């Protein structure tokens, strides 16, 4: 057996022993002190009931208020119906889009810089839920002009809510170093009038 493995094993045993000994010793000392002072009432002269009440009440109220605002925020944004899911799958080195109306297509780079053959077309003021994943390696779906950035991880679906608040063509890119063709993964989102 290798000597360094034995040293590591001994080190782990020492750390484990200390991790058990120190809490056990503290509990024994605390128990002895409690048993010795059961009949004696200890009152320190610096105790102040009002001060202790205030420093207990103030953080409690602060936590209750922050929880209330947090729950209101979560309830407000969960109440918005993101009924239009868009599945986005990153591949080496293109994006695959699946819209809620059973439209599926791949988006490849063209000869023009930051341009693709089929952009992702979204409607203005429609709530979307972008479900982003990857089919091979880690990618990152990033469109800075729309404040979008979410990682595409194989085997995991990350969700991002989007309501496009302005018209236009917005370009982005994969911001994760995903391989040799990393620079050949532009993202183009077109925000248009909703179809009636």
UniProtKB/TrEMBL annotation:
Chain ranges of the Cytochrome oxidase subunit II copper A binding domain: 81-196
Biological-process GO terms, alphabetical: ATP synthesis coupled electron transport
Protein location: Membrane
Alphabetized PANTHER family for the sequence: CYTOCHROME C OXIDASE SUBUNIT 2 (PTHR22888:SF9), CYTOCHROME C OXIDASE, SUBUNIT II (PTHR22888)
This protein's name: Cytochrome c oxidase subunit 2
MF-aspect GO terms: copper ion binding; cytochrome-c oxidase activity
Catalysed reactions, semicolon-separated: 4 Fe(II)-[cytochrome c] + O2 + 8 H(+)(in) = 4 Fe(III)-[cytochrome c] + 2 H2O + 4 H(+)(out)
Keywords: Copper, Electron transport, Magnesium, Membrane, Metal-binding, Mitochondrion, Respiratory chain, Translocase, Transmembrane, Transmembrane helix, Transport
Cytochrome oxidase subunit II transmembrane region profile domain mapped to chain residues: 1-81
Cellular component, GO annotation: membrane
Membrane-spanning ranges: 12-33, 53-71
Topology in membrane: Multi-pass membrane protein
Top-level EC class: translocase
